[in-house]
Prior knowledge:
Elements: H1 2-18, E1 27-29, E2 34-40, E3 46-51, E4 58-66, E5 69-78, E6 81-91, E7 100-111, E8 115-126, E9 132-141, E10 146-156, E11 162-165, E12 174-176, E13 181-184, E14 190-199, E15 208-220, H2 224-244
Antiparallel strand pairs: 1-7, 2-3, 2-7, 4-5, 5-6, 6-15, 7-14, 8-11, 8-13, 8-15, 9-10, 9-14, 10-12
Amino acid sequence: MKAQRLSAVVISFAVALSATPVLGQLVQLSGGSSTDLQVRGTDNVVDFVPATVSPLPSGDTLVASGPNASATATFAYSDTGFIISDLNYSLGAANQVSTFGQLAGQISFMPLADVIWELDGAYSWDGNWANGVGLFARVTDTGTAAVITLHNYGSAGVLSNVSYTVGVGGGNVFNDVGPTSGVLLAGHQYLYEFGLSVDTNRFSPEVGTATGNLALTFAAVPEPGVLALAGLGLPVLLAAWRRRR
């Protein structure tokens, strides 16, 4: 009988956790979203490659190229996050003409339930000559015009080996470091804007590379009852069972 009661306590605890409401889709696009990759080669012609980002999930690898310039970036967008990975620029200069690379986008979306958001990423230029290196990410509540977070890191000059980390910053011209996590409200319209760019110096004697990744991800806000139960823990339940014997 005692063993049966103990089993009942353990099973009740497991069932209570598994009964946590499992949310469906966390966010959905609400129109006006775009993503594009572009480079300008030493012929001053821009290769512009757009991405289709609706409906979710959506993903692809973008490739842009020009003389002395190439870029690739992989995007994977779903209701649990907007993820840019494997961004790579290879940029040189010739005939005193600079090259340029940029990944940019804006995503308009609405949470279908309150969600926890987190922004993460890093971006670096590995080379001896660049005019500018920038990382930009902003989330705005379009209904209230409130800026949820802003990260704007920008450097200018004859730049060598520039590195940015979201939440840390490091720009010598712009260094706006905002929150990296928080809660977005169900039914509100939000706009996520981002950009990762580099512009080479036209007298650059060598090819430089820039690499990066950037992700805005979402998770469901746990139910208060589940947090309380998880905090109680199995040892407390077992102690209560022993007292009842």
